[in-house]
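Subject: for your reference before the review

Hello V.,

The reviewers asked for a structural picture of the protein, and I figured it would be easier to keep everything in one thread rather than splitting it across files. Below is the amino acid sequence we used in the manuscript, unchanged from the supplementary table.
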Amino acid sequence: MRLRNKARYQILESVYSTTLFTLGITKRWKTLYRSKSILIYLQLSLRVEYQKKKKP
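And here is what came back from the structure prediction:
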């Protein structure tokens, strides 16, 4: 009986941790979506820098 309860507890724990993980990811994605313009700006600036470095 104890082993079964332990297994059940482990399963519940894993499910709980995965749900927390997914929630954290969605929250991060929301913040990323908000700062999408900043990300696009960073990408463009990086591209410009890369092109500058490419040219001798």
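For the response letter, the relevant points are probably these. The two ends are 73 Å apart (CA to CA). The first helix runs from residue 2 to 34.

Happy to draft the paragraph if you're swamped.

O.
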